[in-house]
Design a protein that fits this description.
Number of domains: 2
Number of strands: 18
Shape: globular
CATH superfamily of the largest domain: CV3147-like domain
Order of helices and strands: EHHEEHHEHEEHEEHEEHEHHEEEEEEEHH
Number of helices: 12
CATH topology of the largest domain: CV3147-like fold
CATH architecture of the largest domain: 3-Layer(aba) Sandwich
Largest sheet: 9 strands, mixed
Distance between the termini: 38 Å
Structural class: alpha+beta
């Protein structure tokens, strides 16, 4: 157990944006919400999953919707706390802790807003090991753990409890409600016991995110290439360097969807890379249609000069970028995992090949 204060949030948010593969919401907005809560209510305890009793109840919290909308439609600040408390009330329990739904952008630090205000800890874990666009795309789904009952709330004061047949239906119905709420909402979902958290979730992902953020920050003051600092800490592979020459982006069916084209420089000069995204970067193909990396492995776009991760809603023409790939959690590479988050699920005609087998 250790305390997370305002000074830790920058590193967690930056590192989580690296792991978030372009999605998970704008880390700056999430950081502002968490910072204000910690300033008002005090530091938050971050606990290892092993510190949970098997019977403890944990309720993960986060944002659902299109990251492009969240930039303009800022949260009111209480909706995620409201969702958490409504689910507690429905379940008739007092949760021991909250947890990140995904270690990505805004969603990595959103639980700290809940934890600070309610005086509970945050579990050092998440349900993806990265960010994915749909609710059922969580490691607890692999273990048969239901996403519902779940609570959903918006900034206007609307809230609801959803109970669905399975986790795919939870995504379908919650997505429809989120669209009606203005394409963004706050949720409390996948209530679990401590035993289930330890079995099904990706452990110590917030600590990894913080360490990545620290490495990027320190590289600047020490004169080290940020990309190299990241490679020294993780199993990252550099798959492309270039400049963004086109971004086609639209908000549709509750997601930020689109493609980015990156003209190569250096060893990639004369070639182009196209990255498709649905909230998150999902597949990268070179100009000969060669797949360089695909979901569920992590695709991250970094500013070449600063090492800062660039999310799908903030990617712009002219940015000098380095594209890196990281291996996903091994559970996503199983037959069941690939049926939930593999290339074919998203409609891509590509076989999944682990990134370390490509490079």
């Amino acid at each position: 157990m250790r305390e997370i204060n305002v000074d830790n949030l920058d590193d967690i948010a930056i590192g989580a944006a690296v792991l978030g593969t372009g999605g998970g919401g704008n880390p700056y907005i999430g950081k502002l919400m968490a910072r204000e809560a910690i300033k008002k209510y005090g530091p938050v305890k971050l606990i290892d999953p092993g510190e949970l009793d098997d019977s403890d109840v944990v309720i993960p919290t986060g944002m659902m919707g299109a990251p492009t909308v969240m930039v303009e439609k800022l949260p009111e600040g209480q909706e995620v706390v409201r969702a958490f408390q409504e689910l507690e009330r429905h379940l008739g329990v007092a949760a021991k802790a909250t947890m990140s739904c995904e270690v990505g952008g805004l969603n990595s630090v959103t639980p700290f807003t809940v934890a600070a205000q309610l005086g509970i800890p945050v579990v050092d874990a998440d349900m993806m090991g990265r960010a994915f666009p749909e609710l059922q795309m969580a490691t607890p789904t692999i273990y048969g753990i239901p996403a519902t009952p779940m609570a959903i709330a918006d900034e206007k004061g609307n809230h609801a409890i959803l109970k669905t047949l399975d986790n795919r239906w939870a995504e379908t119905l919650a997505r429809t409600m989120t669209i009606d709420m203005g394409c963004s909402s706050m949720i409390a979902i996948f209530s679990m016991t401590g035993e289930q958290v330890k079995q099904s979730c990706v452990r110590n992902s917030l600590t990894l995110a913080e360490n990545i953020g620290i490495a990027i920050r320190r590289s600047r003051s020490q004169g080290i290439e940020p990309i190299e600092a990241l490679r020294n800490l993780t199993e990252a592979f550099v798959i492309w360097q270039g400049r963004v020459v086109d971004v086609q982006r639209r908000t549709a069916t509750g997601f930020a969807r689109g493609n980015a084209t990156i003209a190569g420089i250096g060893e990639y000069y004369g070639r182009r890379l196209e990255i498709a995204f649905q909230n998150e970067y999902l597949i990268a193909r070179a100009d000969d249609n060669e797949v360089l990396i695909s979901t569920p492995d992590l695709i991250t776009i970094l500013d070449t000069e600063t090492g800062e991760p660039i999310t799908t809603e903030s990617l712009r023409y002219g940015f000098p970028v380095t594209v890196i790939g990281l291996p996903c959690d091994d559970r996503w590479r199983t037959e069941q995992g690939l049926s939930i988050v593999g290339p074919s699920y998203f409609g891509y005609d590509a076989n999944y090949i682990p990134i370390e087998a490509r490079y």
